[in-house]
Q: What sequence folds into this?
C-alpha cells in the first residue's frame, strides 16, 4: 500500500488524479485540521504525527509526502523504520527556512509574511500561497489547487498557523542519514517554494537517495501527472 500525505493548506483530494494515474493500491490521508481530519493543538508536530501514523498503519508501507507532508514522511521513515519500505518525497525538504548553512531554503521573511497575513485573513493567505505554488503563468494548476481546496474543505485556522510554524522552525537534516529505506526525490527545476538545490542537497544526505526532475512548479504531479506516476511506479517496483 502507498500512503500519500499532502502539503500545507490543501487536503487529500489534491492527489486524486495521481492516484488514478498510478494504478496501484494507494490511499491519500488528510493531515490534522485539513480536509475532514480533526485537529487538536500539537497534532502537526512531525514527531507526534509520525508516531500516530505508524500506530494507525502497522506494517511496512510505501509513503509519499509532498511539501509539509514530506517533512512528516521523512520523520516517519527515520523515527519508525519498521513502518516505511520506500519513501517518495515530492517538492520536499528537511528544512524550509534559509540559513547560513542552508542557502537553498526559503527566505525567512517570506514565511514571516505569510504568518502575518494568516492572522488577518487565513482564507486569502491560503489562496495566495496556492497561486505561488503553481508558479507564474500556470493558471491551470492554480485553478486545480483551488478546486481541490474547495472540494475537500478549507483547513482550520489553528491548523494552518501550526503548520506554518512547523515549516518555519523545523530542521530535519540530521535525520536523513538514518533513513534506511530507499528514497526517491521528485522535484521540478522551476519550483519557487522549495528550490531544487534543496532536493539535491537532501538526496546526498540519504544513504539510498535518488533525485528525478519532473514537471514544473511546486506541484509537478498536477502538470506532469503521467511522468510523475511512472517515476513513482517504477521506483516502487524496483
A:
Amino acid at each position: 500500500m502507498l500512503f500519500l500525505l499532502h502539503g500545507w493548506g490543501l487536503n487529500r483530494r489534491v492527489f486524486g488524479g495521481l492516484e488514478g494515474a498510478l494504478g496501484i493500491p494507494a490511499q491519500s490521508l488528510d493531515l490534522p485540521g485539513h480536509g475532514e481530519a480533526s485537529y487538536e493543538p500539537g497534532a502537526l508536530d512531525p514527531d507526534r504525527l509520525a508516531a500516530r501514523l505508524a500506530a494507525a498503519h502497522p506494517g511496512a508501507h510505501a509513503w509519499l509526502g509532498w511539501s509539509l507532508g514530506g517533512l512528516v514522511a521523512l520523520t516517519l521513515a527515520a523515527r519508525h523504520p519498521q513502518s516505511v519500505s520506500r519513501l517518495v518525497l515530492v517538492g520536499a525538504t528537511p528544512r524550509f527556512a534559509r540559513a547560513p548553512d542552508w542557502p537553498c531554503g526559503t527566505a525567512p521573511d517570506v514565511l514571516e509574511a505569510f504568518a502575518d497575513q494568516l492572522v488577518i485573513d487565513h482564507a486569502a493567505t491560503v489562496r495566495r500561497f496556492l497561486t505561488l505554488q503553481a508558479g507564474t503563468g500556470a493558471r491551470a494548476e492554480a485553478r486545480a489547487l483551488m478546486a481541490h481546496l474547495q472540494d475537500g474543505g478549507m483547513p482550520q485556522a489553528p491548523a494552518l498557523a501550526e503548520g506554518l510554524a512547523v515549516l518555519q522552525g523545523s530542521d530535519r537534516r540530521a535525520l536523513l542519514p538514518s533513513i534506511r529505506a530507499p528514497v526517491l526525490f521528485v522535484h521540478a527545476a522551476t519550483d519557487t517554494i522549495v528550490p531544487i538545490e534543496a532536493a539535491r542537497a537532501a538526496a546526498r544526505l540519504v544513504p539510498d537517495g535518488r533525485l528525478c526532475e519532473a514537471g514544473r512548479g511546486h506541484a509537478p504531479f498536477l502538470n506532469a501527472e503521467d511522468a510523475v506516476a511512472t517515476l513513482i511506479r517504477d521506483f516502487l517496483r524496483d
Q: What stands out?
A: The CA atoms of residues 54 and 80 lie 7 Å apart. The chain has ten helices and six strands.
